[in-house]
Amino acid sequence: MEISDFLRKREPLPTLPGDYKENAEWEEERLFNAWIKKYPAEKCTDIKERLQYIRKYALLYPDFDGEEWFPSQAAINYYEIRQERLEYCKLSEADFYSLKDIQESIKELGIQPKPTFEFIVYLWDILKRWWEHGDVELVTERIKRLFGLIEKQPDVHLKLDVSVGRKHIKFENDRFIKSLFAVFLNSNVEGLNSVETVKPDKLEIDYILIKTLLDNLPIKYTKEKKGKYTKAERIFSLSVLWLTGEIAHGKNDCPLDTETFNNGTFDLLMRRYKDMPLPAVFALH
């Protein structure tokens, strides 16, 4: 399914006020400095360095209570249970630093390794949960949404695949399929308000991970950029997919051992979802 459908509950927020950025940066800094005092002074510099990219990202997507804007505390919330997130993501800082490809690409892109690692963990922790656990939606709302898609594309051919155990019964009669939905919506049948878990596609999750990193890391190109993505960006992206397990590999394999295949993977991912709006990566609940 399209990620825009999966995140359907996220209504567009009102336009940010003109002075939001300046006020939010000041307020976020104030809250952050108050929070970090709970840690020993010798750790504060390290924590600030680690969280700088997450903090910058979170400022783009403030909380809104219906009347006022508040800077998101996503960075603080992330760090409070950082170890649990690392365990859930199965990401290792040691593996990150020992992977030569990603370290060389990071250096060439002019970004810092420590906050880059934390940003990867932050994003992957949330995206992995999206993919594994999904979200819930009323069946009625799903069918209404489907009707809306059909109205936009009235000539599209419909298929219905009903699975009973290992048996599949398929219907391809458009009028019959539409009538089934119409009967459901116009009746009081049991289950009208039941819920169903919906999940995004795994490749959508991969795309959001990579595109969010490339769009939000403070990349400074040290070489002339030719084409949409540099070689360093490609190697960095493939290495991230490698570390998160999205590119299958053996323990001692190298991310670029099969460079032709992996470059094809990157190109396909970026081409396939290039028109998909990039969502804000925050916990659904």
Structural write-up:
The chain is mainly α and 285 residues long. Helix content is 55%, strand content 8%. It contains 13 helices and 6 strands. Strands 1-2 form a two-stranded antiparallel sheet. A two-stranded antiparallel ribbon has the order 3-6. β4 and β5 form a beta hairpin. α3 packs across α8 (113-133), α7 runs antiparallel to α12 (231-243) and α11 packs across α12 (231-243). The longest helix has 21 residues, at 113-133. The radius of gyration is 22 Å and the shape is globular. The model has no long low-confidence stretch (mean pLDDT 84).
**Fraction of helical residues:** 55-70%
Counted by DSSP, the helix tally is 13
Task: Name the beta content range.
Answer: 5-15%
Largest sheet: 2 strands, antiparallel
Count the E strands: 6
Indicate the low-confidence ranges by residue numbers: none
Query: Judging from the principal axes of the Cα atoms, what is the shape?
Result: globular
Q: What is the CA-CA span between the terminal residues?
A: 20 Å
Mean pLDDT metric? 84
Order of helices and strands: HHHEEHHHHHEHEEHEHHH
Strand order of the largest sheet: 1-2
Alpha-beta classification: mainly alpha
Radius of gyration: 22 Å
